[in-house]
Structure formats: structure tokens, C-alpha cells
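Question (not urgent): is this output format expected?
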Amino acid sequence: MDNVSVVRIFTLTGLNETMDHRTAIFSLTLVYYCVVLFLNISLIVIIVLNENLHEPMYVLLCCVCINAVYGTTGFYPKFLLDLLSFSQEISYDWCLFQAFIMYSFACCELSILAVMAYDRYLAICRPLHYHTLMTRRRLSQLVSFSWLTPFCIFSISILLTSRLELCRLTIKRLFCVNWIIVQLACPDSSTLSNNIVSYATILIYVSHGFFIVWTYMHLVRTCATSKENRVKFMQTCVPHLISMTTFLTVIVFDLMYMRFGSAEMPQSLQNFIAIEFLVFPPMMNPLIYGFKLTKIRNTILSLIYVRIQ
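Got this back:
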């Protein structure tokens, strides 16, 4: 067995079966990544520069887009470099850093979606108290919670992983994942602390999911009694609901596969499952919100009209 304390380089083997098509994959991936950056950064700039969009719902949407840029940048540049290389390697330190980005991106996304659900609950179910409860200070506290909580949790998780003695150097994925690194630990290494933190993290973010479900139960019940609320729900909640459903589906699918999936599954399918959360939500969110939310759609159309003139 190799010992990572001496050779601090991991080998990523996720691309082994697709290297014959790497030129086509590189081209498509580069175009896709540029489109994702363009859409998300454009929406961020529109929201920041337009004072009419400085409302909680749009500020939270801006956070979703910032998080998308953060998460995709943690994966796509390295993936594109790997497609140009004959050996896919990553240093031990960079591997831990990438694992931190991947996990914090996913959990930040879920936290922000939970805050967005809370915001829509207040706006529709308690409209008279909305501006009293959702103040700028409260919004900044919720956004800070959405970012700082995952960062703190996964800083501890990555720190615990960095203390493990590893006896294998091969990661059968396209990118580094903390749970996979823990599985590379030597048989005599204790991973109890890592498991405790891992399951505690799952519990925390499963509770986020239950909170979102509880919120939408109240939203649906409230909107069913009023035509005005149904219109609000269709305009502002449906995009969030689509975004949340897409994200939760791909994350749960990936977690289930990572924990219980078969290694005999074709590598290309394994790769697709692994990167779903980096493919669909970052592209879908700006498109869904950009077309569905009236203020953003009108702002985009007015900008296009000015450019044409």
C-alpha cells in the first residue's frame, strides 16, 4: 500500500473510460462553463445595479448565483485541465480544498433555499408583518448563517480528514470528495470523529429539507383560499420550488450512490451522477428566475431594447 504521508498526490481515475473523446468533452464543457458564468454573473450584476431589485427575494437570488459561480469554479477549471492532461493528478492540499468547496457549495445552496422558503412564507402567509420581520438586519443575519454555518462545519470536517493516515492514493471520481478521502484511510486509522461530523451534518441539512417542506405546506394551504395569493405563488414560489426540487433530487441521488452505490456501474454513469449538482442547478436557476420573475425579466428586456437602439 502507498502512504500519502510520503507521496502527497492523488490520482483521479474518473476520466479513464472517456479519454478517447476528451476533445469533444473539453469543447462542450468549456462552452457550458462559460454560459453558466455568463448567466449567473449577469443576474448578479443586474440585481446589484438595479435599486428596484434590492428586496430580500432578489438579494437571496443573488446569493444563489454567487454560490453557483463559487461551486462551479471549484470544479470546472480543474476538470478542463484534466481533459488536456494525460495523467489526472491533484495535490493532497488542493484535493482537501476542492472537497471543502464542493461540500460547502451544496450546503450553502440548501441553506439559501431554506431562507428563500422562509421569505416566501412571510410574504404570502404573514404579509402585514413581512417588512417588520424581514428587515435588512434580519436578512443579513440569515444570509450570514447560510454561508458561515457550512464553512464552519466543513472546516472542522476537512481538518479531521487531514489528520488521517492514508494508505491509498486513487480517487475513482472526477473530483475530490471528503467522504471518499476518508475511505482511503489506513485500516488502523480511527475515522469515528469523521463519521460523527458527517452524520451530524446530514442531520442538520435534512432538517433544512423538512423546514422547506413544512413551509410549503403552509404556503399551499394559504394560497388555496385566495386568488391573489395563488397568483403570488405562481409568480414567486414556482421558480423556487423548481430550483429546490431539482437541487434536492440530484443531491439525494448522489449521496445515496456515494454511500450505497455499486462500483460495477459504468464509469460514465458514475461520473454523470457525481456532477449532476454542478450541471443542472447552476444553469437552471438563472434561466428559471430570469424568465419567471417579472421585475428581472422586464429589466433584462429593457437592457436588450437599449442595446438594440
